[in-house]
Design a protein that fits this description.
The complex is a heterodimer of chains A (436) and B (67). With 436 residues, chain A is mainly alpha-helical. Chain A contains 13 helices and eleven strands. Chain B is built from two helices and no strands. Chain B starts with a helix and ends with a helix. The interface between A and B is medium-sized, with 15 and 14 residues.
């Protein structure tokens, strides 16, 4: 019976995965080798659209505030207005904003016309050829006018990954999107404010909604069935709740203070667990990689840091700033290390969650990418078939492992938060020992 | 530079693997000696593994940024 259901799952997964191989064969004759690293990074990235399948995308509200004509602030209502086409690339540019791989980006060049403009993308077969044709025609005309040569030269080498769009045969550079470091470590920083409900924000709202529905029902059940054994959903949630309360909060923070921090620890645990599990589902309501987005884990760790810092008692600050019981010259060395450690603890907290969840997703995309690698991007049907078998088995294994990681990382985030908070509110031990 | 970064990530993983393997082995040993303390041992084992993993993850992330 059990083997039967395992085979059923494998079969369903194989069907799901072989849809990729169909796409691999459909794109046959693509000379570029498949780059699974690049594909994986693009799949775990945040986006302004929700990819369903093929070229079908669900547009999400793109609320981008920007300065139009030097005065006033305006915003784009929805990512649908970009006319989403193949690969999530928008066919239209609106006021110098374009949609690339489902992500809104801005065109740097101020020579690009405002308003709605039809554009072409590099790399794609039809659009690229079209761009070259336009270019050839343009070059003839360019001898008469004094067209800026720099822009036309860019068209000659449109790499697959070049950050450009084409309009009238000219290449226009795209601005890099803001990265978490805000251009400090070589990332980009955009010149507009993006308050869009992106895929990750949508996932977070979804998790909040699901958790709200579950916990309101469970809380009602506790009121109605006071003194009776838990039933249904209540019976499912209670062990998780008691586990966090009795195995995490109570021993780490201590009997006296733990109740104060229960709401935060519970919220963190169930929210992270919900994000992790929803990210596991490979299609529509899931697939958002929210707990693998560094900005979101930074925000979660920031809560832990703020709660730890404002609840730190005299004892905690004394241990950081002027550690008692050691010689003064050691204190001078210890104090900077302790202050660094104060910030390093939440930093490692967010990096751990981000890296673990992202790594799992990258590995899954890389395994599915085996189809494209073995199938030599559509030239080798037998290889693609072998790839489907290999990808199905490896992905099943990886998904099972990721289920474990999803629960484990939520638990570790909660227990480490609890231990940091516990260190901050801990009572002085020495007097207690003397009293014994 | 990218190749060097990959080698660095590999070395970091070796270190973390040794550390986590040690913790796991010692935890198994202590559970065998004192089966009644399995809950406490498991919790501390996971925390310690998470701390070691943190060091390895920082190394891997740094090697991602060196391009």
């Amino acid at each position: 019976m059990r083997t039967k259901s395992i085979f059923r799952v494998l079969f369903l997964l194989a069907i799901l995965i072989s849809s990729f191989s169909h796409r691999a064969l459909a794109s046959g004759g693509n000379d570029e080798p498949f780059n699974s690293g690049e594909a994986a990074l693009h799949h775990i990235a945040d986006a302004h659209t929700f990819h369903l399948f093929g070229d079908i995308y669900i547009p999400l509200p793109a609320m981008i505030f920007y300065d139009r004509n030097g005065g006033g602030v305006t915003f784009l209502p929805s990512s649908a207005s970009f006319d989403i086409g193949h690969h999530g690339n928008g066919n239209l540019a609106i006021d110098r904003y374009v949609l690339k791989h489902g992500v809104v980006q801005r065109i740097k060049d101020t020579n690009f016309p405002m308003g709605e403009v039809k554009i072409n993308w590099p790399g794609g077969h039809d659009s690229h050829d079209h761009a070259s044709d336009d270019h050839a025609g343009h070059d003839h005309a360019g001898h008469n006018h004094d067209t800026p040569k720099k822009q036309t030269a860019d068209v000659d080498s449109p790499g697959h990954d070049s950050d450009q769009v084409f309009y009238n045969g000219k290449g226009f550079d795209l601005e890099h999107r803001t990265t978490w470091d805000g251009e400090l470590a070589g990332g980009g920083k955009t010149s507009y404010m993006d308050f869009s409900i992106t895929k990750n924000v949508f996932t977070m709202l979804m998790v909040a909604l699901i958790l709200g529905l579950i916990f309101i029902r469970v809380a009602k059940a506790y009121k109605q069935r006071d003194g009776q054994a838990p039933k249904g959903l209540q019976g499912f949630i209670e062990p998780w709740f008691l586990f966090i309360q009795d195995e995490v909060a109570r021993p780490m923070i201590g009997e006296k203070h733990y109740r104060r921090f229960m709401p935060y620890l519970m919220a963190a645990f169930f929210f992270i667990l919900g994000l992790n599990l929803l990210g596991q589902i490979p299609f529509f309501p899931g697939s958002g990689n929210a707990s693998g987005a560094i900005s979101i884990t930074i925000a979660l760790a920031a809560f832990t840091f703020i709660i730890t810092t404002i609840n730190g008692n005299r004892h905690y600050w004394e241990h950081i700033l002027w550690m008692p019981g050691i010689p003064a010259w050691v204190k001078i060395i210890i104090t900077p290390v302790e202050i660094m450690g104060m910030f390093l603890k939440p930093i490692v907290l967010f990096i751990r969650l981000f890296a673990n969840i992202s790594a799992g997703h990258i590995v899954i995309v890389a395994f599915v990418g085996l189809i494209f690698v073995l199938g030599e991007s559509g030239k080798n049907a037998l290889g693609a078939g072998m790839g489907v078998i290999a990808a199905t088995l490896l992905t099943t294994f990886m998904m099972a492992l990721e289920l474990l990681v999803a629960v484990l990382q939520a638990y570790i985030f909660t227990i480490l938060s609890a231990s940091y908070i516990g260190a901050a509110v801990e009572e002085h031990h020495h007097e207690g020992e003397e009293a014994h | 530079m990218t190749n060097l970064a990959a080698i660095g990530a590999g070395i970091a993983v070796i270190g973390a693997g040794l550390g986590i393997g040690n913790i796991g082995g010692k935890a198994m040993e202590s559970i065998a000696r004192q089966p009644e303390a399995v809950g406490d041992i498991r919790a501390s084992m996971l925390i310690m593994a998470a701390l070691i993993e943190g060091a390895a993850i920082i190394a891997i992330i740094l090697s991602f940024f060196i391009r």
